[in-house]
Amino acid sequence: MSQLESSILVKKAVVPGGYANNCFLNIKHGKIHSITKNGAFSNVLKDYSHLTAIPGFIDIHTHGYYGVDATYSSVDDIHRWSSMLAKRGVTSFIPTCVSLPFEQTAEFIERIKLASTTQKPDEARIIGTRSEGPYISREKKGAHNPMYIRDPDINEIEKFVEASGDFPFIIDMAPELTGFQESAKYLVRNNKIVSIGHSAASYSDAMSGIGGGAKLMTHFFNAMSPMKHREVGMVGAGFLTDSIYLEIVADLRHVSEEAIRILFKIRDVDHIIGITDSLSIGGTTTLNTQLGGMEIVVRDGVAWVKNSDTIAGSVLTMDAAFRNLHRLIPDLSSLAKIFSTNAAKALNLKSTGLIDAGMDADINFIDDEMNVKETMIRGNLLGSKS
Questions:
Q1: 311 has which bridge partners?
Q2: Which domains does the chain have, with CATH numbers?
Q3: Is the predicted pLDDT of residue 315 greater than 70, yes or no?
Q4: pLDDT tens for residues 188-241?
């Protein structure tokens, strides 16, 4: 449901710098026109005076859900996935592949780009593409297929950049590998984003990677060298670098509550990004799947590499992650940064991630129990949730 001009009454809106109480969000042509005490337009689209407005969720690291695998599914499947994500409050997302042969990764980039050009108003918007690997550490490979792991290859990377064109592209690499520096500098020069992770790097190597232009750390704490008292490793570099964004999988299984509390005591809330790292098996009754040729099983609500104690992605949704972190971080303004604003800043997206005049009307309306009751994407209301 959409209107060219409309006003929505809310109990509270999370806005830059805090909150606006008992206000109208005035929407015009898919943008937030203004936030006022009285409706700017005669058409009051909805009375949500019992709900709070927060920025729509942005998931920059997801491999699939609802039976759809980002790597292998058709364009039509990607559209179905996008529509289902929107029902869970995701307004923008980045489909992500794992370590693959060069040809498959290049084809993945092209297919996701194509899907992004034919989206419907009720779909979460595809805002980029991402390759988690293949240039990662074998020691910290996690659920990646060792057959496809290799050192950075500048010739391959040049072709990935060419395939992505102007489309945002994130690539995850281990900073200790031969060829990282040359590759990272080329990617940054071409406005692509480097995330460091799946790495056994020393603190020195990790800091060298950050100095080489890395902007993100992949699912912080997981699949990286831990902090020890004489060698603080990747985790220590993440703690001590104010500029780098840290992804966190907030299912409370990838990372314990205590580790998350420590993280927020050390790092500012402006550089933490909530992600799902979700797999195609999520949202289904299936308990077995594949990820890059690796056998994955679900036990006790957690995805594992078969016959191992290695976690493999998640079956998490962004709305569940939001509720999980709310238990630890009750402030909605901080949560809005973690699940929306920070991702937009990391990707240099100028028109989303905030509820403010001039921004895209990408908005979630939540109740007091932190449930998403309604979602708006570019001014289109998707329909109330039970």
A1: 304
A2: 5-54+355-381 (2.30.40.10), 57-346 (3.20.20.140)
A3: yes
A4: 999 999 999 999 999 999 999 999 999 999 999 999 999 999 999 999 999 999
Cβ-based burial of 243 (10 A; exposed 0-12, middle 13-18, buried ≥19): exposed
**324: CB partners within 8 A, 6+ apart:** 250, 251, 252
Tokens found for residue 97 = 């592949």
Q: 115 near 94, Cβ under 8 Å?
A: no
Cis peptide preceding 134, ω within 30 of 0: yes
Average pLDDT in the chain: 94
Q: How many whole angstroms separate alpha carbon 351 and alpha carbon 58?
A: 13
Taking the complete model, does pTM exceed 0.85, yes or no? yes
Is there a contact between 136 and 99 (Cβ–Cβ < 8 Å)? yes
CA atoms within 13 A on the CB side of 111: 20
At 342, list the tokens: 């920070």
Count of beta carbons in the 10 Å neighbourhood of residue 161 = 18
